[in-house]
Design a protein that fits this description.
The complex is a heterodimer of chains A (304) and B (226).
Chain A lengths: L1 H18 L1 H38 L2 E5 L5 H12 L4 E7 L1 H11 L4 H10 L7 E6 L5 H10 L5 E5 L3 H44 L1 H9 L4 H41 L7 H7 L1 H27 L3
Antiparallel strand pairs in A: 1-3, 1-4, 2-3
Chain B lengths: L1 E11 L2 E11 L4 E6 L5 H8 L7 E6 L2 E2 L8 H5 L2 E4 L11 H10 L5 H14 L15 H13 L5 E5 L7 H16 L3 E5 L3 H7 L2 E6 L2 E6 L7
Parallel strand pairs in B: 3-8, 3-9, 6-7, 7-8
Antiparallel strand pairs in B: 1-2, 1-4, 4-5, 9-10
Helix pairs in contact in B: 3-4, 3-5, 4-5, 5-6
Classes of the chains: A alpha+beta (304), B alpha/beta (226).
Chain lengths: 304, 226
C-alpha cells in the first residue's frame, strides 16, 4: 500500500511541476546557480591547495660553503644538520653542480651567459640545500641553523617563505569567503524560490488539497507530492549542474596546467574521484533545505 | 450515532457560534438542520468532521469521542463520514469516474478495488452511463449526484450534506433529495443542512432548527418554522 501511495504521490508531484512549468524552470535555474557557486568554491580550494603545495615544495634553505671546504668537513656538517628535528633531507651541491644548474636555469638569458663567459671562472660556491620536514615551522629550523657554528660556512640564505605561504593562504581564504557569501546568497534565494514554488503549487492544487482532506487522505499523502516536487527540483538541478560544470572544468583545465607547470593538477580528475562524495552531499544538503522550505510552505498554506 | 453534549464554540470572544448545544442523532436517522445564515449550521458540520474543535462540551461519533481529536486522526474519521457541499467540489480536469476514484486513490486503495467500487456507486446515483463526462458537461443535479457518489465510496455510516440543493434547479433538487433518502434507506445516517423550505416540509423527517447558536426546535416530523 505504501508503494502504491508513493507512486500516486510521484504522479501528483509531476503534475504539480508540469502545471507550473515556468516556475519550475526558474526554480531549477536558481538551484543550478547555487550549486555552481558551491562547486566553484571547491575549485578555488583545489587550486589554492595546489598553489600552497607548490610553494611548500620549493621551500628550502641554502647554506653556502667556502670553496676550499674539505669533503670530511662537509660530510660532518651535513650529518649534523641531518640530525636536527625539523630537517627532512640535506643535499650537497658542489661548485660544479651549482654552475651546471645555474647554466640550465639561465639558458635563455644571454646577458647572464655573457657575464659568465666574461668572468672565465666559476663564481659559485658549493652549498647545502636543506629541505624542512614542516614548511609551516620554518622559524624554529632557521633559529637552530643559525646556532650552528662551522668554519666552512660562507653565508646563510634564509629566505622567508612563510610570508609567501601566508599570502597565498590569505588570497584563497578571501576568495573562499567571497564564494561562501555568494553561495549562501544563492542558497537563500533557492530557499525562497522553492518555498514560493511550493506555495504556488499548493494554490494551483488548492481544490485537490481541500478534497483530499475531506475524503480522508492522510496528512502524509497530502504532504508527499509537494515534498517530492522539491526533491525532483534538486535532482534535476544536480543533473543539469553536472552537465554544465564538466564542460566548464574542461575549459579551465588547460589554464590551470599552464599556470602550475610541472605540478600535477587535474581538476576534472579531482571531481571524478570525488564524484559521489561531492554531488551526493550537495544533493542531500540542497534536498534537505528544499524539504524544509516546502514543509514550511505546506504547514502555512495547505491548512492540513 | 452522533452525540453532542453541551457544546460551545467561539471564533472570538464576541463571536459565539454554538451555545450549550446538545444534539443526539440515532443510527439510520435522517435529520434536517435548518436556520438562518450565521446561526452555526456549518460550524456544527465542521466540528463533526474534525475541521473545528469544540471549546467546551463533548462530541461523539459512533463510539469515538472526537472532542479532542488529533490532527493525524482526522483522515480516519473522514473516511467514516461522507460530506457533500453546495458547490460540489469536483475536480474540473477529471471525468466523473476519476472524480469518484480520487477519494479512493488518496486513501491508498488498490486499483483493482477502485475499478470494482467506482461503477457500483456511479450506478447507485444513476450516472454509470456518463462516467467519462467531465463536470462542465453535466447538469448541476448530476454534479451533486457525482459528489454523493464520491462521498459514498468509503461506505460511510454518516452522510453530511451542506446545502446540497443550493446550486441546482428544483427538479434536480428533488432528484438529489430522493437520492439522499435512498441512501438513508440503505442504513446510512443523513444530516442535511438546508435553507430550502419546500424540500424540508416535503421530507416529513426530523427537523432541528437552530437560532443564534442554540436549538430552538427539534421535531420528529418537522416543518421549516423560520
Amino acid at each position: 500500500m505504501f508503494i502504491l501511495s508513493f507512486f500516486r504521490a510521484v504522479k501528483f508531484s509531476l503534475q504539480d511541476i508540469s502545471r507550473n512549468f515556468w516556475l519550475s524552470i526558474v526554480t531549477v535555474i536558481i538551484l543550478v546557480l547555487a550549486l555552481f557557486s558551491i562547486n566553484m568554491l571547491l575549485v578555488v580550494k583545489v587550486v589554492g591547495d595546489t598553489a600552497i603545495g607548490a610553494v611548500k615544495d620549493k621551500v628550502d634553505i641554502n647554506l653556502y660553503l667556502k670553496g676550499d671546504a674539505g669533503e670530511n668537513e662537509i660530510e660532518a656538517l651535513k650529518n649534523k644538520i641531518n640530525n636536527l628535528s625539523g630537517v627532512k633531507e640535506v643535499d650537497y651541491i658542489s661548485k660544479e653542480d651549482a654552475l651546471k644548474s645555474f647554466r640550465e636555469e639561465n639558458l635563455n638569458n644571454p646577458e647572464v651567459m655573457q657575464a659568465l663567459r666574461v668572468l672565465g671562472t666559476n663564481p659559485l660556491t658549493p652549498n647545502l640545500v636543506i629541505k624542512p620536514s614542516d614548511p609551516d615551522n620554518m622559524d624554529k629550523l632557521t633559529t637552530e641553523l643559525n646556532k650552528i657554528d662551522s668554519p666552512i660556512i660562507e653565508s646563510r640564505n634564509f629566505v622567508n617563505h612563510q610570508k609567501m605561504l601566508d599570502k597565498i593562504k590569505a588570497i584563497t581564504d578571501k576568495v573562499s569567503k567571497a564564494g561562501l557569501v555568494i553561495s549562501l546568497i544563492f542558497i537563500l534565494i533557492t530557499l525562497s524560490v522553492v518555498y514560493n514554488a511550493i506555495r504556488v503549487a499548493i494554490y494551483t492544487h488548492n481544490q485537490e488539497v481541500t478534497i483530499m482532506r475531506l475524503v480522508g487522505a492522510s496528512n502524509s499523502f497530502i504532504y508527499l507530492p509537494f515534498l517530492l516536487s522539491s526533491v525532483i527540483y534538486t535532482l534535476v538541478g544536480i543533473a543539469i549542474l553536472i552537465g554544465v560544470f564538466y564542460p566548464f572544468l574542461s575549459l579551465l583545465q588547460p589554464y590551470l596546467e599552464a599556470f602550475f607547470v610541472g605540478y600535477d593538477i587535474n581538476i576534472i580528475n579531482y571531481f571524478n574521484n570525488n564524484f559521489f562524495f561531492i554531488f551526493g552531499w550537495e544533493f542531500a544538503g540542497i534536498a534537505l533545505i528544499n524539504i524544509v522550505a516546502s514543509l514550511i510552505a505546506i504547514r502555512k498554506y495547505a491548512h492540513i | 450515532m452522533i452525540k453532542l453534549f453541551n457544546v460551545n464554540k467561539k471564533y472570538s470572544p464576541n463571536i459565539e457560534v454554538l451555545k450549550d448545544f446538545n444534539l443526539h442523532v440515532s443510527p439510520g436517522e435522517f435529520v434536517s438542520i435548518v436556520g438562518k445564515s450565521g446561526t452555526g449550521k456549518t460550524t456544527l458540520l465542521k466540528i463533526l468532521i474534525g475541521q473545528e474543535k469544540a471549546d467546551e462540551g463533548q462530541v461523539v461519533i459512533g463510539d469515538w469521542d472526537i472532542t479532542n481529536i488529533k490532527r493525524r486522526e482526522t483522515p480516519y474519521l473522514r473516511r467514516q463520514i461522507g460530506f457533500i457541499f453546495q458547490d460540489f467540489k469536483l475536480l474540473p480536469k477529471k471525468n466523473l469516474a476519476e472524480n469518484v476514484a480520487f477519494a479512493l486513490q488518496v486513501s491508498g486503495q488498490r486499483p483493482k478495488k477502485i475499478k470494482s467500487i467506482v461503477p457500483k456507486v456511479l450506478d447507485i446515483v444513476g450516472l454509470e452511463d456518463k462516467k467519462h463526462r467531465y463536470p462542465h458537461e453535466i447538469s448541476g443535479g448530476e454534479k451533486q449526484r457525482t459528489a454523493i457518489a464520491r462521498a459514498l465510496v468509503h461506505r460511510p455510516k454518516i452522510l453530511l450534506a451542506d446545502e446540497p440543493t443550493g446550486d441546482v434547479d428544483s427538479i434536480n433538487a428533488d432528484e438529489v433529495i430522493n437520492l439522499l433518502l435512498k441512501i438513508n434507506r440503505f442504513g446510512t445516517t443523513v444530516v442535511l443542512v438546508s435553507h430550502n423550505r419546500e424540500i424540508i416540509n416535503k421530507l416529513r423527517k426530523r427537523v432541528v432548527t437552530i437560532e443564534d447558536g442554540r436549538i430552538i426546535s427539534d421535531q420528529e416530523k418537522g416543518k421549516y418554522i423560520l
